[in-house]
Design goal:
Elements lengths: L5 E6 L2 H12 L2 E2 L9 H7 L17 E3 L7 E6 L12 E3 L9 H17 L3 E8 L4 E7 L5 E4 L1
Parallel strand pairs: 1-4, 5-8
Antiparallel strand pairs: 2-3, 3-4, 6-7, 7-8
Length: about 150
């Protein structure tokens, strides 16, 4: 049996995170299945009762996909409660190129990505700049407060 991986992120505003993480990962909003104008229409056709869907759910995509088909689908699941604490799992956006790349080049790549993501709505939480250890990384949070690293 084939297994696939979906990353599900609880959030208050799926559309906001679809826009942010599409920019961050180079993904695209997932179009509804063939023959359906919206995900909501698809879910209704599958028998999901309307009372189980929050207002506006599925009217626009709430998931993103890798256009190359390599990475996992990411679904932003609307939940009523706010984020309460530190993530127990987070994403690392590895843009530096690894330890074989000079630290100055990695730092430049990380910084450029961080600047782009801050413009898209991220907030910087901490910068780890330790040349003696050959490390430069930035801890950010997405618009819903979920932490992730750019390394």
């Amino acid at each position: 049996m084939e297994m696939t991986l979906q990353l599900t992120i609880d959030c208050a505003d799926p559309q906001r995170l679809v826009a942010f993480w599409s920019e961050a990962l180079g993904y695209i909003p997932e179009p509804p299945p063939r023959g359906h104008a919206t995900w909501r229409e698809y879910w209704a056709a599958m028998g999901v009762p309307g009372e189980e869907l929050p207002e506006g759910a599925g009217d626009v995509p709430e998931s993103i996909v890798d256009p190359a088909g390599r990475g996992p689908r990411v679904w932003f699941q609307q939940v009523p409660e706010p984020k309460a604490g530190k993530n127990r799992i987070h994403l690392d956006l590895k843009v530096g190129g690894g330890r074989d790349v000079p630290l100055a080049v990695r730092t430049q790549r990380v910084t450029a990505t961080v600047e782009r993501l801050v413009k898209a709505g991220a907030g910087v939480l901490r910068i780890t700049d330790d040349p003696d250890m050959g490390q430069y990384a930035v801890l950010l949070q997405d618009p819903d407060g979920n932490e992730f690293d750019v390394v």
